[in-house]
């Protein structure tokens, strides 16, 4: 067990929402004296837990008569099958003069919308979408920065019963079309430029190319230009004269609201569809019970619209918190930019990546001495495992009385399997426990739970925020292969972890081939698409190397006949990946090898290469057609630094 860092004072724990919720559970006759008891009840009695969570957290809608329909097949469970709701009725409830969101740009521009103003703008846009023929089950996409307009577009999409997807404008056309091209959106909201790191980027040609390559689009709406490029329409013109929006479309609990995208290691990213009711209920449980988020609190998570944490952040509106959006480089113009934001906005709940915490530690930042963080109560960390040094740095140099919640979950469930709680202690390098309603555990290769030993992080019971389906996946074959391939009864998350006998978790890293530098998930296929187009490369494999409490992207290439991997070719590789994928996809290290390990069926053996690079035992060597090729990847001096 890591060094003890924090436990809430008795008065603070007693005042927490989770304590009040525990008392309500106890009033039903359940013995839930401590958090482990509460969690055990939540997974053993889901028919009781989820309705109580619905009512306690304030989800607006009718629950219907049945909370859970169990099935032998984990994909056959149904939650609240008779419910009717639309998430905007919860997210935009209490439309008054309190602030709903604050949007701050890198340049310092600040926009504030009250709850009444936000609802009015969402209603106007919902009316325009309905007038454009968008309705229940249609898809709407956003090529947008993390600004107020993105929230408005998402909520208006939900209002009319349509399905929302978004990505950041830093992505190249190929990456965007690989995603949005699969969902066939009717409307695309976009921008023609953005600012990052003090530099302005013109992405009008990218937006035009996306529009040209997605034939389903009836409207492409620009949010940052009064005069839209040819073939597009400016936002104000799209709104038109302003028809009546009508009431939000009533939906079932499991009707879709979002499509997010996997970082798939082969082929195009998988389209992961999420239900509005299931996702929002999960997020409200995490916000209110696990982080004690209350009306009037100020919630921030550094994210882009490409990451599921953006959806998670917007859900803070449902708890009547003020959400703070930041668009730009978190280290510009100085490394303390986000602490400036925290002090200026009096942020109570502050979320960043584990890499950001490590970076502030290495930079010697001591925001406790330089910034007013008196309002701060909770620090969230995710994206990669938080190091022991990083967690100790938060308590030594940020604030000694915060609840540090390292969380682990992801795009797959729009929430966290494991995280913190106001009534759980924090130990260095550990995640305090499983989240309510999710039966998270660590199991060995035989599927047996293990303690104080590494294994696979699994969830042993279905829950409402599981994806409804993957698009273009007949019979849910890809869905099952993604999560239930190894353990047919358990969801396998793809993380290696250790469950301590004391209840906490230590996450060791990804057990699949998805790259995760700086907490941003990257699919290897997106990099291969660019290397395949470079004449000087005959073959390539890209993996993540554990490095400096993070993961760095390492690309190995087999030069084409007559070519060699020199500085010119390295520059060409980096430039192409940066232009056509994104700056985040650019490898930190590029090395040459004589051949790429492949399976007997011809697939690139990414996991084998990753294990070799990280000095771990290579699993399933017998499945390789050329196992001797791994010798070129082991003990490379270029990777030792």
From TrEMBL:
Keyword Nucleotide-binding among UniProt keywords: yes
Sorted UniProt keywords: ATP-binding, Ligase, Nucleotide-binding
Keyword Membrane in record: no
Residue ranges occupied by any AMP-binding enzyme C-terminal domain in the UniProt entry: 534-603
Uppermost EC category: ligase
Gene3D superfamilies: 3.30.300.30, N-terminal domain of ligase-like (3.40.50.12780)
EC numbers, comma separated: 6.2.1.16
Domain of life: Bacteria
PANTHER family, A to Z: ACETOACETYL-COA SYNTHETASE
Protein name: Acetoacetate--CoA ligase
Organism of origin: Albidovulum salinarum
């Amino acid at each position: 067990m890591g060094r003890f860092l924090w436990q809430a004072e008795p008065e603070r724990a007693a005042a927490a929402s989770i304590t009040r919720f525990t008392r309500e559970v106890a009033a039903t006759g359940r013995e839930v004296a401590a958090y482990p008891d509460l969690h055990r009840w939540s997974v053993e009695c889901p028919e009781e837990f989820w309705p109580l969570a619905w009512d306690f957290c304030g989800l607006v809608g009718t629950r219907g008569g049945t909370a859970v329909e169990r099935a032998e097949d984990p994909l056959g469970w149904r939650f609240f099958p008779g419910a009717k709701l639309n998430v905007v009725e919860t997210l935009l409830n209490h439309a008054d003069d309190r602030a709903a969101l604050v949007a701050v740009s890198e340049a310092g521009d600040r926009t504030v919308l009250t709850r009444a103003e936000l609802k009015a703008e969402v209603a106007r846009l919902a009316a325009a979408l309905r007038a454009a023929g968008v309705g229940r089950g249609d898809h709407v996409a956003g090529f947008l920065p993390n600004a107020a307009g993105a929230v408005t577009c998402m909520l208006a999409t939900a209002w009319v019963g349509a399905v929302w997807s978004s990505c950041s404008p830093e992505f190249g056309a190929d990456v965007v079309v690989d995603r949005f091209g699969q969902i066939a959106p009717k409307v695309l909201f976009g921008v023609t430029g953005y600012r990052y790191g003090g530099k302005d980027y013109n992405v009008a040609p990218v937006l035009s190319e996306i529009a040209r390559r997605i034939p389903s689009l009836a409207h492409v709406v620009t949010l940052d230009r009064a005069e839209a490029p040819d073939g597009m329409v400016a936002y104000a013109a799209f709104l038109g004269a302003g028809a009546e929006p009508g009431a939000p479309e009533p939906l079932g609990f499991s009707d879709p609201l979002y499509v997010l995208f996997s970082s798939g290691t082969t082929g195009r990213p998988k389209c992961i569809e999420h239900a509005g009711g299931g996702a929002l209920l999960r997020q409200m449980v995490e916000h209110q019970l696990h982080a004690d988020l209350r009306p009037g609190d100020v919630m921030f998570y550094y994210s882009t619209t490409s990451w599921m944490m953006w959806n998670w952040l917007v859900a803070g509106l449902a708890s009547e918190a003020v959400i703070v959006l930041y668009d730009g480089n978190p280290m510009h113009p100085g490394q303390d930019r986000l602490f400036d934001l925290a002090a200026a906005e009096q942020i109570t709940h502050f979320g960043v990546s584990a890499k950001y915490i490590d970076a502030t530690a290495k930079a010697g930042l001591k925001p406790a001495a330089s910034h007013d963080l008196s309002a701060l109560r909770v620090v969230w960390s995710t994206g990669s495992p938080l190091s022991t040094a990083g967690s100790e740095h938060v308590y030594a140099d940020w604030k000694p009385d915060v609840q540090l919640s390292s969380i682990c979950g992801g795009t797959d469930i729009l929430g966290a399997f494991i995280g913190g709680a106001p009534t759980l202690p924090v130990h260095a390098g550990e995640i305090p426990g499983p989240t309510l309603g999710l039966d998270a555990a660590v199991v060995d290769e035989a599927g047996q739970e293990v303690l104080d030993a590494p294994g696979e992080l699994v969830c042993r019971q279905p829950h409402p925020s599981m994806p409804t389906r993957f698009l273009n996946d007949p019979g849910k074959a890809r869905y099952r292969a993604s999560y239930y391939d190894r353990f047919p009864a358990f969801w396998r998350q793809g993380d290696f972890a250790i469950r301590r006998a004391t209840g906490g978790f230590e996450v060791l890293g990804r057990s699949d081939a998805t790259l995760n530098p700086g907490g941003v998930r990257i699919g290897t296929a997106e990099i291969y698409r660019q290397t395949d187009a470079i004449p000087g490369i005959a073959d390539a494999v890209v993996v993540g190397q554990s490095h400096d409490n993070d993961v760095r992207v390492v690309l190995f290439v087999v030069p084409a006949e007559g070519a060699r991997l020199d500085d010119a070719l390295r520059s060409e590789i980096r430039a192409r990946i940066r232009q056509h994928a994104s700056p985040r996809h650019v490898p930190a290290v590029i090395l040459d090898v004589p051949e790429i390990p492949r399976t007997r069926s011809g697939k690139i053996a990414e996991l084998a290469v990753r294990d070799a690079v990280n000095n771990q035992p290579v699993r399933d060597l017998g499945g390789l057609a050329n196992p001797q090729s791994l010798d070129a990847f082991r003990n490379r001096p270029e990777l030792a630094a």
